[in-house]
Design a protein that fits this description.
mainly alpha, 2 domains, 312 residues, elongated
């Protein structure tokens, strides 16, 4: 997707969420009579911004408030306060991707999760060629897509493993295995560059924050990002609807990272077709994690990259 088109789309999404915040306000509930219309406004705002689970979550919370109010000494005051909290939670969820607090939470969460993923493997130093690629790619990605909060603190953490694996942490920390450039599955240097560009794209597009906010929507804004993500993932396999929503966002994020990686490689003076060759190299292999539904079908990704290569 051309950068200006993506930026317009991103701005459009933000405008939807800002509008939702303006419509859905805690101050609109001052009496029991205010509750139903205020909640309906919040539900409408949630649906307009694509927060479909939040619409249902609000309805359930309103019922809970009503049920608990019968045990209160002052049912009307309890209902007002309880539903004001519901609206506040809704606002927090709808503005989650614009929250510095949540961004900081997701940085810490990604660090914990990624360290667990690679904990069995010793840390090693990347080759000078890989270090040079990473420096060039990270700087280019940062220029192409300026940060919403603060510039990433880029760092490449390498683990000695034959796996062809890499993952991005919010804030600029990229984890990679040595299997990318050595061992039986050794990739060409241009393909390693494509992996790094893909992961750097996840960072600047703030995909971890988007997924953390999705977890909050389902689990509740009274959690931090890490605890919400853990609960969300624990229940993922047994919850068909939840998994479908997660897969939709995750696969969308992967395609966005693939497309931006093409631009990053090109602007960095590297071969953008390395992204295509990388995916074609992965085509016959059963890569760990792909069967979970986190990534689109490899053929879809290849077609997506071909389109990105044709874009100006």
């Amino acid at each position: 997707m051309p950068r200006f088109t993506f930026l317009r789309f991103f701005s459009f999404l933000i405008s939807l969420e800002v509008s939702a915040q303006q419509l859905c306000e805690v101050s609109s509930i001052n009496s029991v009579a205010d509750i139903e219309p205020a909640v309906q406004i919040c539900q409408k705002a949630a649906k307009s911004a694509g927060h479909h689970q939040l619409h249902r979550f609000l309805a359930e919370k309103v019922k809970l408030c009503k049920g608990y109010s019968f045990n209160s000494k002052d049912p009307q005051s309890y209902l007002v306060q309880c539903n004001r909290e519901n609206v506040q939670n809704a606002v927090e969820i709808m503005t989650c991707t614009q929250s510095l607090k949540r961004y900081d939470e997701v940085i810490q969460s990604d660090l914990v999760i990624s360290n667990k993923l690679f904990k069995e493997y010793p840390k090693v130093t990347a080759t000078s060629a890989v270090k040079e690629l990473f420096s060039k790619i990270s700087k280019t990605a940062e220029k192409l897509f300026p940060a919403q909060f603060r510039q990433p603190e880029w760092s490449l953490m390498v683990f000695d493993s034959p796996m062809v694996n890499a993952t991005a942490g919010a804030g600029g920390l990229i984890f990679a295995s040595t299997g990318l450039w050595q061992g039986p599955a050794q990739l060409q240097l241009s393909e390693v560059a494509a992996v790094l560009a893909h992961e750097a794209s996840h960072v600047v597009l703030e995909h971890s924050l988007q997924q953390g906010c999705l977890a909050l929507e389902w689990i509740g804004s009274d959690h931090d990002i890490h605890s919400a993500t853990e609960v969300f993932r624990e229940d993922l396999m047994g919850a068909i609807e939840r998994k479908a929503v997660w897969m939709e966002l995750s696969q969308k994020n992967e395609k966005e990272a693939d497309a931006l990686a093409v631009k990053v490689l090109s602007k960095a003076g590297l071969d953008p077709k390395g992204m295509l060759r990388l995916l074609e190299a992965l085509r016959p292999k059963d890569q760990p994690g792909f069967s979970s539904g986190s990534h689109p079908d490899i053929e879809d990704r290849i077609e997506n990259v071909k389109k990105a290569l044709q874009s100006p």
